[in-house]
Hints:
Largest sheet: 4 strands, antiparallel
Number of domains: 2
CATH class of the largest domain: Alpha Beta
Order of helices and strands: HEEEEEEHEE
Number of strands: 8
Radius of gyration: 29 Å
Distance between the termini: 102 Å
Strand content: 15-25%
Helix content: 25-40%
Shape: rod-shaped
Low-confidence stretches: 137-157
Structural class: alpha+beta
CATH superfamily of the largest domain: protein ne1242 domain like
Amino acid sequence: MPPTAAPGPSPVVKPAASIRRRLLLRGLFAAAAGVAVAPVLAALGSQDETGFDETYRGRRIVGVRDDDRQPGDDVSGAWHITVDGRPLHLMRRVDGSWMTMIDHYQSYPTPLAAARAAVDELGSTARLGVWDADGSRMDDSGTPSGGQGTEGGHRHGVHA
Length: 160
């Protein structure tokens, strides 16, 4: 008669390795969830802000949340921001960040950050332009901006 094999211990995964693997996977999933939720939480935090009034690099920046406007009424959306009393137009991007009319290539997390960046771009002497009643840009003297080399009194394109 052939000898029968006695039932021995079945192969078992080491408990310590199994626990370490589970903890590692939990940590990875928690980190991935945190990265995915962070932009949403940041956007929610910035919505609580009702306004700001500060001096940044010698310029007065005032921002007031304006929820009474209808969508599409103003390019700045729900914010009215001025730099030294002149309007700074903002646009909200699809991802919830903000861009200024001074720099279309950079996004900022809050309207205040966008206004500070606009002040940085303007430097110490340049001022935001103002618009007259018919929508033409006016310079500081109150005369339509333009002059030789512009078409229709509008500044468009690349200038050397």
